[in-house]
Design brief:
single chain, 214 residues, mainly alpha, three-stranded antiparallel beta sheet
Amino acid sequence: MEHQMLSLADQVFDVIERDILNGTYERGEFLTETGLSDRLGVSRTPVREAIRRLCQEHLLEVTKHGLQVVGVSPEDIRDIYEIRYRIEGLAARRVAETVTPEQIREMKEDLDLQAFYTERDDSENIKEMDSQFHQALYRFCGSAPLQHTLEPLVMRIVKYRKASLSAPDRASKSLEEHKAIFDAIVAHDADAAEELMRRHIRAASTSILLKSSD
C-alpha cells in the first residue's frame, strides 16, 4: 500500500510540475489542495506530498494568502543559461573526444528530424527534437554529474524554449548551430565542439530572455 501511494504521489508530482513549467499554472497563481485533487481525480494525500516536494523545488510557495505558484522567473532563466554556458560546452567536448559510430547515427537521426520539422514550422516537434539533441549529448558525455546537472535545468525552461523556437528564424538558426556542433563532434574536434556549444547556448539565452521580457 505504501509503495502504491508513493508511486501515485510521484505521478501527481510529475503532472503538477509539468503544468507549472509549461505555463498551465502561471507565476503568481494560487492553487489549493482540494482544487488539485479534484482536477487530477485523486485523494488529497498524494497531492499534499507532491506540494511538499514542489515547495522544496521552489516551484510552489506557501504564503499567508495560500499556495502560490513560483514557477521560473527571468532571473532563474539567466542563472540557468549562465550555468549551461559554463558547463554544457564541457559536455560537447567530452562527446567529441569519445563519440562512437552508433552515437553519431543517433545524433544524425535527431538532426534529420529537427530539419524535417523546421521545414514544416512544427514548433512542438521542433522543441522535442531540439531537446533530444541536447539530451543525447548529456548521455554520451560519459559524466553522470554533468548529465544529472544539465537535464533538470533544461526541463525547467521548457515553456520558454518553446516560445523562443517559435520566434522567426530562431528555429532555423538553432538547427544550423546544432549541425555545426555535430560536424565538430564527428571530426573529433573537441575545441570547436566546446566553443560552438558555448555560442549556441549564448544565442539561445539571448532569444529566450527577449521572449520572457515581452
